[in-house]
Specification:
It is built from no helices and 14 strands. By secondary structure, it is an all-beta fold. The chain has one domain: Methylamine Dehydrogenase, Chain H (7 Propeller). A hairpin with a 2-residue loop joins strand 8 and strand 9. It starts with a strand and ends with a strand.
């Protein structure tokens, strides 16, 4: 069992925390520190993904954690965080949001192919309705859903 979050100050760029329960005890994973984490997802014990503040992304291959990041233009007085991450049919997807004091929120849908992150879609708050949700769920039957104000397949 895995859990992700933060230790110390939520706003610190070095507060990310991943812990693992081996059936007997919880232990902190050895990661290169990054932003606080919002989500962790795994397909198997050797394929775990986590994401969070400042575009922080982690992947565990069964031996070690590697750190990556997704970035968008982030002006002063704004905050960017990834909300959810999942791997589906060998493609990793993530959602995120940028909060800007002057313009409001912008939501992002990303995918990773060939170790490169790209924006699939984005939408500013107050614009048209999202065609995808900000959180993921992979059903036991292997169907990928995203959800927020609706459920999308």
């Amino acid at each position: 069992m895995w859990a992700a979050g933060y230790a110390g100050d939520l706003g610190s760029p070095n507060s990310g925390l991943i812990i693992h329960y081996d059936g007997l005890k919880w232990s902190e994973e050895n990661i290169i520190k990054g932003g606080a984490l919002n989500d962790i997802w795994g397909r198997s014990p050797n394929d775990i993904w986590a994401c969070g503040f400042w575009g922080t992304v982690y992947h565990y291959d069964g031996i070690k954690w590697s750190k990556d990041s997704i970035s968008v233009y982030n002006p002063q007085r704004s905050e960017f965080q990834l909300l959810s991450i999942v791997e589906f049919k060998n493609i990793v997807y993530a959602t995120g949001v940028k909060y800007e004091i002057s313009t409001g929120s912008t939501y992002y849908f990303f995918k990773q192919t060939n170790n490169t992150w790209q924006i699939v879609d984005s939408l500013a708050s107050g614009s048209n309705t999202l065609n995808w949700g900000t959180r993921f769920w992979l059903s036991p039957e292997g169907n990928l859903f995203s959800f927020a104000s609706g459920i999308y397949r």
